[in-house]
Design brief:
about 140 residues; about 25% strand; about 30% helix; 5-stranded mixed β-sheet; alpha+beta; Aminopeptidase
Length: about 140
Amino acid sequence: MSSFEIVESKDLEPGAIVGLYTSVGWSAYASDPDSLVKAIKQSSYVASATDSAANLVGLVRAISDDISICYIQDLLVHPTHQRAGVGRALVDRVLKRYAHVRQTVLITDDEPGQRAFYESIDFIEAHDFEPASLRAFVQITNK
């Protein structure tokens, strides 16, 4: 397992942020660095992971009303640090911070590893929720 440290702060170096988003192929975010930095600063909660050389290797950000909902907007881990506990540790920070909130939600792509990861940390895909099924809807505007 790689060594990493988690810090709760929105004050991150813009180049490191863009580099991390680029490393996981999130080009829609990385192509507009100013908006990406602004989105992170305006998030309700941000935690990041750095390696022993102080390189940014992971980030989670959440949007919340701090009462009824916490939405995990972004969770990303640099490919060289995936499967080393970074993502789990970042999500744990969000869940601890918002433990009093009724629902925590997120949207991710349908890559099988994503489902396995989120189910391993007790998330349930909306259509699998019981006792009553849930529906999730999304509208994404491409600019």
